Amino acid sequence: MIETHELTKMYGEMYALDRLNLNLNQGDVYGFIGPNGAGKTTTMRILATLLNPTWGEATVCGYSIYTGSKDIRRIIGYMPDFFGVYDDMKVIEYLEFFASAYRIQGPARRKICEEVLELVDLSYKRDALVTSLSRGMTQRLGLARTLLHDPQVLLLDEPASGLDPRARIEMRGLLKELKNMGKTILVSSHILPELADICNKIGIIEQGKLFVNGEVSEVMKQVRAEVVLNIAVVNRTTDAANLLEHQPEVQSVQDNNGVLVVKLNLGVNQYSMLANRLVQEGYELTLFKEDEINLETAFMQLTKGITS
Q1: Which of 51, 167, 203, 254 has the largest count of CB atoms under 10 Å?
Q2: Domain ranges of the chain
Q3: What stretch of H or E contains 192?
Q4: What is the DSSP secondary-structure string of 99-146?
Q5: For 74, phi and psi rounded to 5 degrees?
């Protein structure tokens, strides 16, 4: 659906984007993570055919950004990080204006506008002036605008930027719904928790270079080589800790308010035998799971906070 090869954008001697290679398949939700100025917006503007690269190639649904710009614009929905609105328009008028730009005519235009308003939960604001909307509502209206022509691919540049906690949760819910609809989504953010539970792939970009790229689970493994387990048993916590400390797979054991934090030796990825040994020794397990590392921790460990 989206593929780039050695995509590069230079301003003078400065690399805004340095040999970017991406590959998104249909249905992928790709979290594009990086500090402000890292090259995320540049990438999206090139994919949306609004900016020409210095060199390199990019295709969207098989169409080249050089020769297929009209075709690409028909099949993508691009939501920039900042977009203007027409202040003197009602919400429904705003959407109908853009629907007409997509050549959606007649009764179908009003029907589609009503449907996208319902999707983004703004039906109750259909007759309100755009100027009366909150920041979160305006973002949802912008997303509704990108969905009018039912695009296959969505390019969403910082859709949750500047939103309060409730609005961010609502935006995340919308992205999950679009994911369930089978849309291919490239979404950028520097607010990492927004992407943690909706993306199946992530890329981390810094100084225009994509230096982490892959499945979310694989990226987490890059951050932490050792496996850490959280284990809890009924009553005999100290005895269980002593047992685990003497296992050859275990590096260390710490008691955290009744939960044993067990760090395994480097290279040990299988740990079901530890559960079996505890059960065989008569311990009743109430918790046995691998400690998860989140995207925010991964980002901080993998980046230096440098921009182009």
Answers
A1: 203
A2: 2-216, 225-292
A3: none
A4: HHHTT--THHHHHHHHHHHHHTT-GGGTTSBGGGS-HHHHHHHHHHHH
A5: -75, -25
CATH number of 2-216: 3.40.50.300
Q: Are strands 63-64 and 250-256 parallel, antiparallel or unpaired?
A: unpaired
Return the CATH number of the domain spanning residue range 225-292: 3.30.70.100
Record the tokens describing residue 208, joined without a space: 């225009």
CA distance 210 to 17: 9
**For 226, which DSSP code?**
S
User: Which of 274, 307, 239 has its CA nearest to residue 16?
Assistant: 307
Joined tokens for residue 227: 């496996």
Host H or E run for residue 275:
helix 272-280
Which residues of the chain carry a pLDDT beneath 70?
Answer: 190-194, 196, 220-225, 292-308
Return the closest-CA partner of residue 196 out of 164, 219, 212, 178: 219
DSSP 292: P
Cα–Cα distance, 231 to 272 (Å, whole number): 12
Give the distance from CA 233 to its chain's centroid: 36
Q: What is the pLDDT of residues 64-79, one digit of tens each?
A: 999 999 999 999 999 9
* CA neighbor of 205 nearest in space, from 48, 54, 39: 39
Query: What is the reported pTM?
Result: 0.76
Tokens representing 98 are 């853009």
Residue carrying the six token digits 């050549």: 103
Strand bridging mode 2-11 / 153-157 = unpaired
